[in-house]
Amino acid sequence: MHVEVTPVDYNELSAKEKGENSAFIRERVIKAREIQAERYKGIAGMYGNAQMSSKILREICVITTAGEALLKRAMEKLNLSARAYDRILKVSRTIADLSASADIKVEHLAEAIQYRSLDREGWAG
User: Fold this and answer.
1) Rounded CA gap, 20 and 26, in Å?
2) Quick one: which H or E segment has residue 23?
3) Contact 112, 91 (CB under 8 A)
4) Which among 68, 88, 122, 125 would be 20 to 30 A from 4, CA to CA?
């Protein structure tokens, strides 16, 4: 996974509003890990989304029709592989877990696709 880091504008740096603090982010990560531990408690040796087999992925990473359409367009536009498809679903499941969402929503898929698209040639300009 790649994440593009762009320079931060002065106005953003000097703004009075603050983003999420580290303690809050830490709590979200801990909760997401607990969600995953509960999800995989009956499967020996599995404790996180990254370890899902293709079979388990199909059972756990169910997406809506709108999500399927978005993922199909991304697969075609970015010329992604079947392996990339699985990884996008795993990452989107993790993003949903970080949001404490039982379902993978279109915005979770879009974020996961964005991370994957940064892996493509020419993403940085």
Assistant:
1) 10
2) helix 22-39
3) yes
4) 68
Neighbours of 29 (CB within 10 A): 12
Q: Which of 81, 76, 75 is nearest to 109 (CA)?
A: 75
pTM of the predicted model, to two decimals? 0.82
Q: What is the pLDDT of residues 60-94, one digit of tens each?
A: 999 999 999 999 999 999 999 999 999 999 999 99
CA distances from 28 to 24, 71, 79, 80 (A): 6, 26, 33, 30
C-alpha to C-alpha distance for 107 and 57, rounded to whole angstroms: 19
pLDDT tens figures, 5-25: 777 777 777 777 777 889 999
- What are the backbone dihedrals phi and psi of residue 6, each rounded to the nearest 5 degrees, phi first? -105, 160
The whole-angstrom separation of Cα 33 and Cα 39 is 10
Q: Give the closest residue to 102 by CA, choosing from 51, 45, 47, 38.
A: 38
